[in-house]
Design goal:
The protein is of the alpha/beta class and 432 residues long. The protein is 35% helix and 22% strand. The strands form 6 sheets. Strands 1-21-20-18-17-14-9-12-13 form a 9-stranded mixed beta sheet, sandwiched between helices. A 5-stranded parallel beta sheet has the order 3-2-4-5-6, sandwiched between helices. The two termini are 32 Å apart. Bound molecules: flavin mononucleotide (FMN).
Length: 432
């Protein structure tokens, strides 16, 4: 059994310029600074004038242990070229929160304050966490600007779906500070790994350009009555990380998702489903043309045999409900799949993990299964990290240490590539 080395999640010695703009989530910026400093980073904070309506100079300076940069021209200090100095100093520019206004300004090259001027002079990697009301986020101009920024190499830390300050519910909520800092750590870990042998081990050599990849993610819901359902704890994080990693590796990605709190990643065909049979139909339709299926969703195994059309009343102390097995998506894919389709399943197990996962791999004719333990705090459905055992159809077993879900996603895709390369070379040597 091989063991994959844990990548570093430290930011020791990393110099971060943190740009804060005037969205309500600026009140969370002090926590981002705290987490960055705790991870070992040196932080200089730049704030727009509007950002300081939501957070204070004293908090930002105390936590970053550096003077706040909030004015290009200041009456209380000598005028200088601090914006160039900070641009040359920083290893990465993190923008969190990033308003629709700031996104528009950056995409147009506007540099009319200390933040945008410093950013304009900065030539390193930029990561930004959008934060705004759903209508602002879904405004075609904001979408176009984000797409452009991604196309020039900016990393977008996708917002969450959730309750907004304006009391609406939808996409646009800034990613939580813990996720933002984890993504920065992850960025530097994969950069360091990029120079080492482990990187090749993690990411594989080629890309998925020209390949159609289908990812399923999140939980399914099976209705009991119009107001209740049976579901599970799946957050969708692993599936969404796989979709983003496959897209970054050049694949044409379809993400079929049950209800989650995650925003659909950009440049991915998104199919929203609710029940297991809806997920089955969407998956069978999508895999017809696909090269790879990553089945990271958590369908519901047993669903109520009938759905009550009206709300079941609490008239007695017990309720008996008959459940019947839901469609087995992987089994139906196994029956219908083309010879080129590679299928990767996932198994979340409480007991006998290896034995159960290997049984599932064989029963469902999978090419690989990713087994992970249930009931541990740093792995499994809701965690941002995961440890997994990859079991290949040829019997090879590989155990990872604790990785972020993004790292694990890249590792899985690297293993799929290795499998595809092996099959291609066998097919050539057999003269097919
Ligand atoms: C209470 C309040 C909350 C706001 N929250 C946001 C927000 O979360 N995201 C956003 O893009 N704009 C938000 N705005 C609007 C911005 O403050 C406005 O677009 C401003 O010009 C942004 O300036 P800046 O990008 O230079 O910081 C908010 C405005 C107010 C009054």
């Amino acid at each position: 059994m091989n063991t994959i080395e844990k990548s570093s999640t430290s930011l020791q010695g990393v110099r971060i310029a943190l740009g804060i703009s005037g969205g309500i989530a600026a009140y969370k910026a002090p926590l981002i600074i705290r987490l960055l400093v705790k991870a070992g980073a040196e932080v200089r904070v730049l704030a727009t004038a509007n950002a300081l309506q939501f957070t204070t100079r004293a908090t930002l300076e105390t936590l970053s242990e550096n003077p706040l940069e909030s004015a290009l021209f200041s009456s209380d200090k000598p005028i200088g070229t601090q914006h160039i100095d900070t641009a040359l100093w920083a290893d990465v520019f993190l923008l969190a929160p990033t308003t629709a206004n700031l996104i528009g300004k950056i995409a147009s090259g506007i540099s009319d304050d200390v933040l945008t001027s410093t950013l304009c002079a900065f030539s390193g990697p930029v990561m930004l966490a959008p934060s705004m009301n759903t209508n602002m986020y879904e405004n075609p101009v904001t979408k176009k600007n984000l797409k452009f920024l991604r196309s020039i190499g900016f990393t977008i830390i996708e917002p969450d779906i959730g309750e907004m300050a304006c009391h609406t519910h939808g996409v646009g909520r800034m990613a939580e500070p813990e996720r933002i800092v984890a993504e920065v750590c992850d960025f530097f870990a994969s950069r360091k790994l990029g120079e080492s042998k482990v990187a090749k081990n993690l990411a594989g050599s080629g890309s998925f350009a020209g390949q159609k990849v289908v990812v399923t993610a999140g939980p399914c819901r099976e209705p009991i009555d119009p107001v209740r359902y049976i579901s599970n704890y799946s957050s969708g994080k692993m599936g969404y990380a796989l979709a983003v990693a496959a897209r970054e590796m050049g694949a044409d990605v379809t993400l079929i998702s049950g209800p989650t709190n995650l925003a659909p990643p950009d440049d991915v065909a998104f199919v929203a489903v609710e029940t297991t049979s809806q997920m089955q139909s969407a998956t069978l339709a999508a895999v017809r043309e696909a090269d790879l299926l990553l089945m990271a969703a958590a369908p519901v195994d047993f669903a109520p045999t009938t759905m009550s059309t009206s709300k079941i009343k609490k008239t007695s102390s017990e309720l008996e409900m008959k459940l019947s097995a839901s469609p087995d998506i992987l089994l139906s894919v196994a029956k219908a799949k083309s010879s080129r389709l590679v299928v990767v399943g996932f198994a979340l197990e409480t007991d006998d993990m290896l034995e159960n996962a290997t049984g599932k791999l064989r029963a469902k004719d999978l090419d690989m299964i990713v087994a992970n333990p249930a009931g541990v705090s740093d792995a499994g459905p809701n965690s941002d990290t995961n440890r997994a055992t990859l079991i290949m159809c040829d019997g090879d077993v590989e155990e990872t240490q604790l990785l972020s879900k993004r790292e694990l996603a890249r590792l899985i895709l690297g293993r799929v590539q290795r499998l595809q390369d092996l099959r291609a070379s066998r097919s050539v040597s057999e003269g097919n």
